[in-house]
């Protein structure tokens, strides 16, 4: 039995399953959802969780602030045995993945379905058409990690398992020992630009455009309109992006996925302290109403090394896929799942020729 250890994720045992098979999962509720916010004393057990930023709070009176993506929401799903873990990075081709959250506040913020570049946030300029709700991967620091539910464990929210009720970081938001207040949260939103993990919690400070896995979409609502309560916000993950595909493949390999929903909507209308802003709020599973908590669906084809086009088999079409995508980053054409398409992928196809 092979053990696979992934950074920030738990170890899982390998299970054999047929390549080519498509596994489609649909979750009516998450295994974990929690507000990741320094002041959330009940982190994980609240009925709703909010996304907002600390932008606009950096004044002379109040020079210390928090991660710019201050209020983040973690949602996670543990995969059942029919999506077997431990097949390795090339063992999965994610065909689709969709996260849905239901809005729990009414006509508070504007619907913005498109990404806003970091420079649009400078100098508190604001943005008349609102700010998007964005979805990212989850990363961990200080040894914390994602864990599957394990009945043998006395408590899930104890180190190193990051769970509902785990501390947001080492120290309280204010008071002795509380500084620094940035870049210290145990779980944080990350993209993986060119397979390089980036904490996106302060991307305006750090002057780069983050690369969300998805931007929240609301059907039948005009951009710029106020968002009514109980509307679904749908995050369709960009599985054609090599970095998103690689993240989800690692998730499948680990047997669980953790995601973070964030925004740069301002918590404060101006000046120090929170409040007065217009930001999003979403129900968690603790609301206890069917269909109100976070939901997730994922469809995955079980694949093998050499399967450059993710068809479930290795044949001449994979040679074509490598040549067509030559010099790109995949996932199409990347037969050995290393993030580049080059001659090694031709070798990989030939080595695995005829595999299912
Ligand atoms: Ca929860
Ligand atoms: Ca905007
Ligand atoms: Ca193929
Ligand atoms: Ca490759």
Write the topology of this structure:
Blueprint: E1 3-4, E2 12-13, E3 22-27, E4 32-36, E5 48-53, E6 69-78, E7 92-102, E8 133-140, E9 187-193, E10 196-199, E11 214-215, E12 232-236, H1 242-254, E13 256-263, E14 280-283, E15 295-302, H2 316-324, H3 343-351
Antiparallel strand pairs: 1-2, 3-15, 4-6, 5-6, 5-14, 6-13, 7-12, 7-15, 8-9, 8-11, 8-13, 9-10
Helix pairs in contact: 2-3
One calcium ion binds next to helix 3.
Protein architecture, described:
The chain starts with a strand and ends in a 5-residue tail after the last helix. It folds into two domains: 3-12 and 24-300, no CATH class; 303-356, Dockerin domain (Type 1 dockerin domain), CATH 1.10.1330. It has 356 residues and is mainly beta. Helix 2 (316-324) packs antiparallel against helix 3. It has helices at 242-254, 316-324, 343-351, and strands at residues 3-4, 12-13, 22-27, 32-36, 48-53, 69-78, 92-102, 133-140, 187-193, 196-199, 214-215, 232-236, 256-263, 280-283, 295-302. Strand 1 (3-4) and strand 2 form a beta hairpin. The model is unreliable at 1-15 (pLDDT under 50). Strands 4, 5, 6, 8, 9, 10, 11, 13 and 14 form a nine-stranded antiparallel sheet that branches. It has a four-stranded antiparallel sheet with strand order 3-15-7-12. Strands 1-2 form a two-stranded antiparallel sheet. The chain binds calcium ion (4 copies). The site of one calcium ion (CA) has 7 residues, from helix 2.
